[in-house]
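pipeline stage [seq->struct] | target=Gamma-butyrobetaine hydroxylase-like N-terminal domain-containing protein | organism=Shewanella sairae | residues=131
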Amino acid sequence: MTQDNSTPNVIAIKLKRKSRQLEMTFDNGETHQLSCEMLRVYSPSAEVHGHGNPVLVTHKKNVNISAIDPVGNYAVKITFDDGHNTGLFSWKVLHDLATHQMDLWEKYLARLRAAKASREPLIDMAVKYHK
């Protein structure tokens, strides 16, 4: 696959687990950070994008990345700790998310409000039955 000449290539990726941020350096000198949550809710996967009707991904405030695998010289496959691992994050996708993240984030928050949904993780409950 050839890279679009107008999109810079990623030359370095660093996962900051504690802050749940992915830092990317592009060959044009730009460095950007994206939250793991942003990457998860805007995953380029068919599961998230559906067939032209994007799914609203909720409850991912604390999601983190468990693995990043290179795909050729044009993308990475990201595995999230919630098990999601479909969709390839091409350099173009990463650059577009990074350079438009404020607008995309506001749109995501607006969609959450409209759906009365939440970013907050679902609470794991340990249920014990007494005999």
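stage status: PASS
auto-comment: The chain is about 25% helix and 25% strand. The mean pLDDT is 90.
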